[in-house]
Amino acid sequence: MTGFFKGIQQIKYEGPASDNDFAFRHYNPDEIVMGKPMKDHLRFAAAYWHSFAWEGGDPFGGRTLDRPWFGDSMEAAKLKADVAFEMFQILNVPYFCFHDADVRPEGNDFATNTRNLEEIVDYFAGKMDETGVKLLWGTANLFSHRRFMSGAATNPDPDVFAFSAATIKTCMDATVKLGGENYVLWGGREGYETLLNTDMGRERAQAGRMLQMVVDYKHKIGFKGGILIEPKPQEPTKHQYDYDVATVYGFLKDFGLEGEVQVNIEQGHAILAGHSFEHELALARELGIFGSIDMNRNDYQSGWDTDQFPNNVPEMTLAFYEVLRAGGFKTGGTNFDAKLRRQSLDPEDLILAHVGGMDACAAGLKAAVAMLEDGKLEAARDARYAGWDAPQGLSLMTSDLTSIAARVQSENINPSPKSGRQERLENLINRYQ
Ligand code: XUL
Ligand code: CO
């Protein structure tokens, strides 16, 4: 034991009446809801980068956090891993997620980075064996180092494309070695700042080629997990090629990869794109590309990606309602891509942030299950579209303009508007909280 979380025991379920800050009120891992344990619905993961690599900086000031593992040595990386796995066990999260740059010291070249990553992967393998904690997904950080300032796959310099491809290969290898269930691509710098210096056609083609190579490599090595793209509209680059779910789907169709790649949808990214989280989830479901979620919360006023821990149960309810309607997670899960506020210095802040987030998700899941099982919302939705299931509605889908026009005229079709009953449905939803 490192002693970092000294005095904090494993968090247990104590039920809604508990007065203990270090307890779950809603997350009861083995409770059966809709036919399976809550933990298998939610598939929680902790994110290595925010909890262990982020130093507490913002655009106006640097490090506020003081962590004994900050430093560039392998020794520091191993201490960081020790503390991380202690946190995973305290929280009883079944999964974690990482980028290469979160877990290993940065080397001066590709070979050093690869060696460092391999050493830490072996260290992780031992810890995963000891604790039973699993890897939800791995990914490559192709956005922090200055070599990626003009993009990774979409860089005008082919050497950066090559460096990125090689790095993705090592990160896919690391993910597979650790039994990871997905591999994620978030294209932080895959976009552009100004059209004045940008050849958009080339950049899109380069990104398409990189994705094709990732899919080919997946099949070559027999990886059975998901390949997931994480949409985000802006920040860091002004115009991102993976703006939102709809844009990613267009990109996948363009390169013939819509059957191979799904999306990892993040709450805060949905908000930045001007959507709600549930919109993005529902669209991914309709398009058949729903994969996984990055759970967090964005500040609704500030306009940038604040990556706060989720705490709004009615929002979580609508999100998990869409997850359930998508059939739940297969290889995906609920990854807390969320960080503390920079004034939250104490080790217990890290624990309590996750406890609150996990409880908000569990409460949302329970309310979503109640909504689905009750069936009133779906019954109202079905009733609204019932005309489309009747013979005349069905026939419209195979008619043409001429025959429809003739029918409208001969039958004097003259529709009268019907209420959408939004407020009634909003009132209904609040009854499940
Ligand atoms: C950035 C973001 C990333 C991805 C993984 O906004 O969400 O942390 O989740 O690269
Ligand atoms: Co994310």
Describe the overall structure.
A hairpin with a 2-residue loop joins strand 3 (32-33) and strand 4. The protein folds into 2 domains: 12-374, Alpha-Beta Barrel (TIM Barrel); 392-430, no CATH class. Strands 5-6-7-8-10-12-13-14 form an 8-stranded parallel β-barrel, surrounded by 5 helices. A two-stranded parallel sheet has the order 1-2. 41% of the residues are buried. The model has no long low-confidence stretch (mean pLDDT 98). With 433 residues, it is α/β, with parallel strands linked by helices. The protein starts with 11 loop residues before the first strand and ends with a helix. The chain has 16 helices and 14 strands. It is 46% helix and 12% strand.
Question: What is the secondary structure topology, with strand pairs?
Answer:
Elements: E1 12-13, E2 23-24, E3 32-33, E4 36-37, H1 38-42, E5 44-47, H2 48-53, H3 74-91, E6 95-99, H4 100-103, H5 110-131, E7 134-139, H6 158-177, E8 182-185, E9 191-192, H7 200-221, E10 226-229, E11 239-240, H8 245-254, E12 261-266, H9 267-272, H10 277-287, E13 290-295, H11 313-325, E14 334-336, H12 347-374, H13 376-385, H14 391-396, H15 401-410, H16 422-430
Parallel strand pairs: 1-2, 5-6, 5-14, 6-7, 7-8, 8-10, 10-12, 12-13, 13-14
Antiparallel strand pairs: 3-4, 9-11
Helix pairs in contact: 3-5, 5-6, 6-7, 10-11, 11-12
Number of structural units classed as domains: 2
The unique ligands bound to this protein are:
D-xylulose, cobalt (II) ion
Assign an overall shape: globular
CATH topology tier name of the largest domain: TIM Barrel
The residue-averaged pLDDT reads: 98
**Biggest pleated sheet:** 8 strands, parallel, barrel
CATH architecture of the largest domain: Alpha-Beta Barrel
Beta-strand percentage range: 5-15%
Instruction: Give me the number of helical elements.
Output: 16
Tell me the Rg in angstroms: 24 Å
